[in-house]
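Much of what follows relies on a compact textual record of a protein's fold. Each token is a code from a learned vocabulary of local backbone shapes. The record below shows the convention in full.
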Amino acid sequence: MADIIEFATERRASGKDATAQPGRSEHRPTRAGASLPLTAVDETEWRSLADRAIEPNAYYLPDWELAVNASAPGRTGASSLAAWIDARLVGLMPVISMWRAYKIPLPALVSAHPYGTLCTPSLDRECAESAATQLLHTARQAGAHALLLREVALDGATLKAIGEVLRRDGLSPRILNSHVRACLDATGEAEELLREALRAKKLKELRRQRHRLAEHGALSFEVARSPKEVSRAIETFLALEASGWKGKRGTALVQVEGDATFIRRATRALAESGRCEIVTLCAGETPVASGIVLRHQGRAFFFKLGVDERFAQFSPGVQLTLELTRHLCADPAIASADSTASPDHPMINPIWRGRFAIGDVLIPLRANDPLVWLIHAALVARQFAREAIRRGLHVLSRLTSG
């Protein structure tokens, strides 16, 4: 059944009109939804929608998501739910079938994972509820009985607009799980924020470590912005990431050909529009830490961090994050930063003390639908099983190491 859903989602763009150029009027129905392969969405219109989006999400910018979709293993070949008003793209949500996401053969569509940990779809701020209405309608046309929004901002304007549309239809979203992660209020003064977050004793220790690190060469904080600078800096980042524990596990981006291709393409493309920076902390000529930062509207997104573990005793990742905090707070175009980190992250949580609520949300598409209850139950059962396995592995690890 899930394979039928995926086929239904894509067939409207692969049938009679499949030879039309993406973005032409065949794909722009007035006051109706359009279901397309992700690659058939006109990039110019997608970028325009991103500029008007009611809520920022750099991981669903076209230059990022299309690079993921093109080569990142396990994340290629996504479809899209699209909404249009008077030939203008007003809503977009990359999706895959529930079968592909979880190997569950039930009629639901799931937000495609963009590598970064945020899947909030794009809705035009000028008509967010109309756009949400059309996205839900398009999902129904594709045969779905529910939508699963993975890792969506629970307090964001996008989910509020979708919730209002559901309320009018007598439906309500169902939060399957939730957590909070670190974020930064970049409108404050950086030194004051750091003093409040880390306190005098910790800051003194970090200054001591910084002085010790500087014994290996004068410290410099470098920001790569232009496409040429970013293309050079991404190689530094990839080398640092691969030099650490991710490299030992074989999970560093550069160790997987499709991932390396995606990140090189995405960062350079985003740099063309000023939406990507790569920050690097150097001791003399030696890079000791590097991070990828995306930008969308007034929000920054701290994607990944790589460090040279030979300098671990000096906390190079923390030192870079302190400099990044100062950099973002000094930028009037940035109001906040999402760490996009895991809950209770030991490095970023003590520094960025704001919290951002994220969760997986099930969106029912039909009232009193037994299939929605079945989809909900299957997802809860899967989540329970995964938690039980995780706990069991933790206990086994403790027993075998004791």
Notes: The chain has two domains: 2-180+357-401, 187-334. The longest helix spans residues 370-401. The domain at 187-334 is CATH 3.40.630 (Aminopeptidase). Residues 147 and 363 are 5 Å apart (CA to CA).
